[in-house]
């Protein structure tokens, strides 16, 4: 688990693609001790997998990479991260001041 938020979810294998700018960082400073490198791609990007219980802190950690990270699987968690990014992006759609 990442962080301290406990929920009733099970340990899940989460596949993540990292851009070439972020791959070196995550490969040398893993997101979680369970991290495994699945593939190093020719363009410098990488696909890794972690086995964790999805929770609030994990979402915050992954969202912190912004466009440098893409959750590939599982589909439900991918959708959750995508929804959060769309909500965040919507806050910037209007260039007016608050």
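-> sequence recovered:
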């Amino acid at each position: 688990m990442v962080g301290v938020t406990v929920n009733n979810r099970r340990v899940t294998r989460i596949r993540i693609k990292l851009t070439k700018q972020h791959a070196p960082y995550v490969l040398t400073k893993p997101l979680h001790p369970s991290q495994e490198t699945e593939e190093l791609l020719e363009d410098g990007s990488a696909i890794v997998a972690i086995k964790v219980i999805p929770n609030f802190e994990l979402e915050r950690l992954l969202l912190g990479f912004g466009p440098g990270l893409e959750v590939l699987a599982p589909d439900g968690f991918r959708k959750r991260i995508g929804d959060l990014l769309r909500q965040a992006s919507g806050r910037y759609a209007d260039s007016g001041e608050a």
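The domain at 12-90 is CATH 3.30.70 (Alpha-Beta Plaits).
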